[in-house]
Amino acid sequence: QVQLVESGGGLAQAGGSLRLSCGASGTIFTLNTMGWYRQAPGKQRELVASITRGGTTGYADDVKGRFTISRDNAKKVVRLQMNSLAPEDTAVYYCYADIVQDWTSRGTYWGQGTQVTVSS
């Protein structure tokens, strides 16, 4: 089976920084696109950032210039550096990964979520 384990959430002040990490483990043949979603209370889950196996990145408009996504393919890790945090960034952040396990098994896997709280 596949597991995604997140770390790095917590409390930050507005203008501060946090870094999230997510490691994938288990039966993984190919680790394709990885990324982060977030869900604030009362809101739908939204895509924050993604990164392909080749390193092409994409960001939500409201985090461009503040957040940076990166990955280490050898370590099967994706990270999200969050700078200039604002109270509106408060949410549970979920890591995801598109994974091929073998010739017949592929899917999108999710981490358990990590809380990020930004105080004003």
Report on this structure.
There is one protein chain. This protein has 120 residues and is mainly beta. Helix content is 0%, strand content 62%. It has no helices and eleven strands. It has strands spanning 2-7, 10-13, 18-26, 30-39, 46-51, 57-59, 67-72, 77-82, 91-102, 105-110, 114-119. The strands form two sheets. Strands 2, 4, 5, 6, 9, 10 and 11 form a seven-stranded mixed β-sheet that branches. The chain has a four-stranded antiparallel β-sheet with strand order 1-3-8-7, with no helix packed on it. It is elongated, with a radius of gyration of 14 Å.
Indicate the structural class: mainly beta
| SS elements, strand count | 11
Mean pLDDT: 96
- What's the helix-strand series? EEEEEEEEEEE
Low-confidence spans: pLDDT under 50, at least 5 residues? Answer: none
Number of helical stretches of at least 4 residues: 0
Oligomer: single chain
Q: Describe the biggest sheet?
A: 7 strands, mixed
- Beta-strand content estimate: over 45%
Termini Cα gap = 41 Å
Global morphology: elongated
The whole-angstrom Rg is 14 Å
Helix content: under 10%
Nutshell version of this structure?
The protein is mostly beta strands and 120 residues long. It is 0% helix and 62% strand. It has strands spanning 2-7, 10-13, 18-26, 30-39, 46-51, 57-59, 67-72, 77-82, 91-102, 105-110, 114-119.
Topology overview:
Layout: E1 2-7, E2 10-13, E3 18-26, E4 30-39, E5 46-51, E6 57-59, E7 67-72, E8 77-82, E9 91-102, E10 105-110, E11 114-119
Parallel strand pairs: 2-11
Antiparallel strand pairs: 1-3, 3-8, 4-5, 4-9, 5-6, 7-8, 9-10, 9-11
